[in-house]
């Protein structure tokens, strides 16, 4: 199912949601991407992380980022999804 994330917080929530769906701990995900658990924690709390770290995390979770023109839904509508 396609999800929309317009803010760092929304993206962080999607990463955390997918990790838990796969029944992975933060440490297990960190091991898959050769980083520390604290980095995964930072990603899931919408802290500043490198783009490469984000993309590696998405790949490890079998996710991909799609860039497209923004839809006209309001931020409130998007928040309702979460």
Q: In CATH, what is the homologous superfamily?
A: lambda repressor-like DNA-binding domains
Spatial extent as radius of gyration:
13 Å
CATH topology: 434 Repressor (Amino-terminal Domain)
What is the annotated CATH architecture?
A: Orthogonal Bundle
Instruction: Note poorly predicted spans.
Output: none
Q: Write down the overall geometry.
A: elongated
Q: Work out the count of structural domains.
A: 1
Termini separation comes to 13 Å
The arrangement of helices and strands along the chain is: HHHHH
Strand share of the residues?
under 5%
Would you count the extended β strands for me? 0
Q: What is the CATH level 1 assignment?
A: Mainly Alpha
Helical segment count: 5
Category by helix and strand content: mainly alpha
Query: How confident is the prediction overall: mean pLDDT?
Result: 88
Biggest β-sheet strands, sense, barrel: none
* Helical percentage: 55-70%
Plain-language structure description:
It is a single chain. The chain has a single domain (8-70), classed as 434 Repressor (Amino-terminal Domain) (Orthogonal Bundle). The mean pLDDT is 88. The protein is built from 5 helices and no strands. The chain is mainly alpha-helical. Helices cover 56% and strands 0% of the residues.
